[in-house]
Design brief:
With 399 residues, the protein is of the alpha+beta class. The protein is built from 15 helices and 13 strands. The protein has an eight-stranded mixed β-sheet with strand order 3-2-4-5-9-10-1-11. It has a three-stranded antiparallel β-sheet with strand order 6-7-8. The protein has a two-stranded antiparallel sheet with strand order 12-13. The N and C termini lie far apart (53 Å).
Length: 399
């Protein structure tokens, strides 16, 4: 049964470079590049934060604030660590996201997959596409650490007549998508999410690479890993590791997009299935099944993956509390001290789900301070209750 008829209310898409309704907080999700801009005041995560309502609509209930697991990781019915038995060559991790998307397409679950390739001219410049073949999906492997207008293809979806669709995206894109879901005229929408934090513009990415990597022009992809180091994969296969504590924070504080500095959906709470890494042991991927649709997607690759229960060890809280003023003041350690601290924390610091909580706490406290200082009028409405509870565990500056 069709969820809804195609939208009858349309507005003219904004021209490239025109001011956006969310102004400097725009995450460039792509909605305003289509006639679905008609719904932007309701749909945009940075104009109208509506987590509880959208969670209830998507999952049948909102998150249980009496359950710490759900406070941190959202509505879910299962969680595990996993890795592909035969990793996909060239994938950022083992290729679970690509494998699920390919199975969804080849088994006829969907007619197309919204994913992000890169332009021919620039390996880091995102290019959203509707993939119709496994080859199209494989061309989108590897995360693009820049703001990406995934929803710019919504008009193309309607024109194409697609009725069963898989969308791969990050939190801000998925909140807008869920808000207009009933307007898309689809018979079935599947959402495969990835956790997301600290995206940048293309210029901001270049500054980060130039400031942090010894060979910025050969970086294929990078990630902030569970061993408290940034791992840069280079074209020749070399992995360069830079300790978190050695980053030139004083030069990089302003490189992240204001939307990312104002986001509290690190774990992509409105996706059906989430695949990331931060809650898993090193070398594994972290999978969160939020609802039956997510389980249906995961079941397609169950014979291709090894799984193990999630684990948690260590205590994050002292490290988070110390990181708050360090980031706030732009503290950067000498590299020898940063490496030493990295080794020490890797041995005794948080691991598994506790590392995930460390990362969430660190970013939520930072983002709460950013919002309070720069957009105080938005603070009460924009910060979800679960995020307020997480931030409330710590002593913040100016309080």
């Amino acid at each position: 049964m069709t969820l809804a008829q195609p939208p009858h209310k349309k507005a003219k898409a904004l021209r490239p470079g025109a001011p956006r309704p969310a102004k400097e907080l725009c995450s460039e999700c792509g909605l305003c590049d289509t006639y679905y801009i008609h719904y932007v005041k309701e749909a945009c995560a940075f104009i109208n934060q509506q987590f509880p309502a959208l969670e209830a609509t998507t999952h049948g209930r909102d998150r249980d604030l009496g359950n710490e697991q759900e406070v941190y990781f959202g509505v879910h019915q299962d969680m595990m660590a996993a890795r592909k038995q035969q990793p996909i060559e060239g994938a950022q991790w083992t290729g679970i996201v690509s494998a699920i998307a390919i199975e969804m397409l080849t088994q006829g679950k969907v007619e197309g997959v919204v994913c992000v390739q890169n332009t021919e001219a620039d390996r880091f410049q995102p290019q959203p596409v509707i993939a119709r073949t496994p080859e199209d999906i494989l061309a989108a492997r590897v995360n693009k650490p820049t703001l990406s207008p995934n929803l710019s293809v919504l008009e193309e979806i309607e024109r194409s007549g697609l009725k069963r669709l898989l969308v791969i995206g990050v939190g801000c894109q998925i909140q807008a998508l869920r808000a207009v879901e009933q307007q898309l005229g689809l018979e079935k929408l599947y959402v495969l999410g990835t956790p997301c934090v600290d995206n940048v513009t293309r210029a901001g990415l270049q500054k980060f690479l130039d400031t942090t990597s010894k060979s910025p022009d050969t970086v294929v992809h990078y990630e902030f890993m569970q061993d408290f180091r940034v791992h840069f994969k280079h074209e020749n296969g070399e992995v360069e590791k830079v300790p978190f504590f050695g980053l030139k924070t004083n030069q990089l504080k302003d490189v992240f997009a204001p939307s990312c500095m104002s986001c509290f959906d690190y774990v992509n709470g409105l996706a059906d299935l989430v695949v990331g890494y931060m809650g898993a042991p090193f070398g594994w991927q972290w999978i969160v099944v939020r609802n039956d649709t997510g389980q249906e997607m995961l079941d397609l690759v169950k014979d291709q993956i090894d799984t193990q229960p999630v684990m948690s060890s260590g205590d994050r809280k002292a490290a988070v509390q110390q990181s708050i003023p360090a980031y706030d003041k732009g503290v950067t350690l000498p590299m020898w001290a940063a490496k030493l601290m990295g080794v020490f924390i890797e041995k005794i610091g948080p691991k598994g789900l506790e590392y995930a909580r460390f990362s969430i706490d660190s970013h939520f406290t930072r983002n709460y301070l950013y919002l309070k200082r720069n957009y105080p009028d938005k603070l009460a409405q924009h910060v979800p209750e679960f995020a307020k509870r997480i931030v409330g565990q710590y002593q913040l500056p100016d309080e």
